[in-house]
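Record 1 of the preview.
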Amino acid sequence: MTSDKYVGLDVHQASTSIVVLDCNGKLICESVIRTRADAIRDFISGLSGTIHVTFEEGTQAAWLYEVIRRLVAELVVCDPRQNKVLAAGNKGDRIDAKKLAELLRAGMLKSVYHSNHDTKMLKQLTHNYDSFVSDTTRVMSRIKAVFRGQGIPCSGRDVYYKRNREQWMTRLAEPGLRTRAQFLFDELEPLKALRRAAKNVMLKEARRHQAFRILSEVPTLGPIRIAQIIAAVGAPHRFRTRRQFWAYCGFAVVTRSTDDYRFEENGPLRRSRPPATRGLNRNFNRRLKHVFKSAALQGASKEPFKSYYQARVAAGMRPEMARLTLARKIANITLTLWKNGGQFNEHKLSEQHDRAT
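->
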């Protein structure tokens, strides 16, 4: 008789609900423990047999993965966006934990990648840099909103420069607006300094990775984009084909079909009508999609990718589809060079790296 046990964890800040099922789906035990490393380790270590554990991706997922992974035979950090069954019926911590255990036992969970320890530092530094970029952009937008609210044109970056600050402040007639703008300018300066420092630390860490030198061969991928790619992907061999990588980047086309077969004398025959296209996949890494879309936008106006883009537009492809095709091409080249090494050859762009192996 098999001794497999399937454990579902519904994790919250203070408490974690746990449900354990056997191989036949029978409830063995359920418990609520503190969300602490020692309590979780003690509970998992107290189970006998082959242990399979799952919990949903979230704020504490990376920490919990490191706590549990050496104690169990299988650990699945699942994608909550794929677990629609959890939203059906009654909702509760114990109920959710049981549903997770049942889905794990049935092999119906979509896992989220957790593993590469070489890029852990770079992941944190990239998150840090992205946060400062977002904070800086938000304050800059608020500054422009103050001037635009008074009908003062402020396009471009001139309004942010310290040397022009007095000139811009005198254009605000109301004292309250000047005070508000001054606070925003005072907030902007240290944020800009912190963003520069965060970028330097991130790039210093990124240059330690061999992939940084390899990906520097790809045009339009500057140091920041390369650091973000390495942090997001971790290990290129987790993607067996280019299509898997496209889906991760948000470039996979989603299709739908129904009533695909009709019956004739010789049996079922597939209908010849094409499936309906429903756009691009919605479950993707947003940082990677932004990186490759911005790289394609830059490449569309700059060689060696400009000719590749213009050839597709000249062939009748819509500009937005041509940019998508170029983004896929850059993503494909990135994956292939990272896997196999070598150098980028712009003279063989149309046929180079058409397959990521």
